[in-house]
Amino acid sequence: MGFKMGIVGMPNVGKSTLFNALTKTAAAQAANFPFCTIEPNVGEVAVPDKRLDKLVEIASSKSVIPARMTFVDIAGLVKGASKGEGLGNQFLANIRECDAIAHVLRCFEDDDVTHVDGRVDPVADADTIETELMLADMESIEKRLQGLARKTRGGDKDAVQQERLLKAAHEMLESGKPARMVEVDDDDKRAWGLLQLLTTKPILYVCNVEEDNAGTGNALSAKVAEMAAEQGAGTVVISAAIEEEISQLEAEEAEMFLGEMGLEEAGLDRLIREGYSLLKLQTYFTVGPKEARAWTIKEGYLAPQAAGVIHGDFERGFIRAETIAYDDYVEFNGESGSKEAGKMRVEGKTYLVKDGDVMHFLFNA
To answer: How far apart, in whole angstroms, are the C-alpha atoms of residue 18 and residue 106?
Structure first.
């Protein structure tokens, strides 16, 4: 399990440049004019995790398989997109297929890079796109309510539930707030997710700053951080230009370059970490002489659910899990040392998997 993050924003804010950096390809055409991205570019990247490198070192694993995540570079949205302006609804549909949204905001001044509205105001840009997504959701909800009318009159329980949730979302949207602000009961969460409303997607604001401010941000990114805090959204400061340059370097060169720029880590690492936090994801590992692998699961997964990420048979026939905490695995130099130290635990079906657990599953085929 990974997750799919859609990269959205106004034209010319650095979306495609960031996508190129993230996927280490030039698949997305970065150009100084609106709508240079005509089809959504999809790139799958490895999730950097230094813990996995350490596990490989200890176990002398012959192969290493990191967790994966997918980025989708979606064309620049403009005011009126919900009514088909620019490239409109085609790209709203691309957003709908993503788990979360990385909203890239221009937080740099550059006379050589045009702004579609003739000014640099990241908060206003964020509001423009949020408004378009809200308008698209309202139109979708109104159509779906009409389609549900007959079923609800007939007492269909699923239709009644959908109608109630759609009306709650519409009411929130009419108040000028995104649908993700609706408080949803646990019993309704599955049905709520199936509605696939655009404004229920978690948002991470990506502040694209000039190179000199990549480590600290600037006045514009500070305004975005203030806005995000009010919404309960995440933010990350990145210089897309730096990230693209780093992506072309070998590991040692990239580390040296980051040091020269006064940066502790690449923007990709920060972006993924914030994305994981946004979607409440975590990682467990399977480690052996043949292979060390990272697996992405949702927070709150029990051992059988975590096993099911590897294969459905693991979950259906789950017997128990042999588990070692990552810190213990490192401290006692692997599985044998951890066993001798009494740090390997046998866990059952009710075990709540923790981030960094090293696990081995036993199951009935």
So the answer is: 12
Q: According to the model, what pLDDT value does residue 119 have?
A: 73
For 119-131, write each residue's pLDDT tens digit: 789 999 999 888 8
Confidence of residue 114 (pLDDT cuts 50, 70, 90): low
Question: Which pLDDT score is estimated for 33?
Answer: 40
Q: Per residue, what are the HEC states of the chain? A: CCCEEEEECCCCCCHHHHHHHHHCCCCCCCCCCCCCCCCCEEEEEECCCHHHHHHHHHHCCCEEECCEEEEEECCCCCCCHHHCCCCHHHHHHHHHCCCEEEEEEECCCCCCCCCCCCCCCHHHHHHHHHHHHHHHHHHHHHHHHHHHHHHHHCCCHHHHHHHHHHHHHHHHHHCCCCHHHCCCCHHHHHHHHHCCCHHHCCEEEEEECCHHHCCCCCHHHHHHHHHHHHHCCEEEEECHHHHHHHHCCCHHHHHHHHHHCCCCCCHHHHHHHHHHHHHCEEEEEEECCCEEEEEEEECCCEHHHHHHHHCHHHHHCEEEEEEECHHHHHHCCCHHHHHHCCCCEEECCCCECCCCCEEEEEECC
Q: Render the burial of 196-229: b for 16+ CB within 10 Å, e for the rest.
A: ebbbbbbbbbbbbbeeebbeebbebbebbbebbe
CA distance 79 to 343: 57
Q: Strand 63-65 vs strand 318-324: parallel, antiparallel, or unpaired?
A: unpaired
pLDDT category of residue 265 using cuts at 50, 70 and 90: confident
Model confidence pLDDT, tens digit, residues 173-192: 999 989 988 999 989 999 99
- Note the residue count of the chain: 365
Distance (Å, whole) CA 327 – CA 334:
10
On whether the pTM is more than 0.85, the answer is no
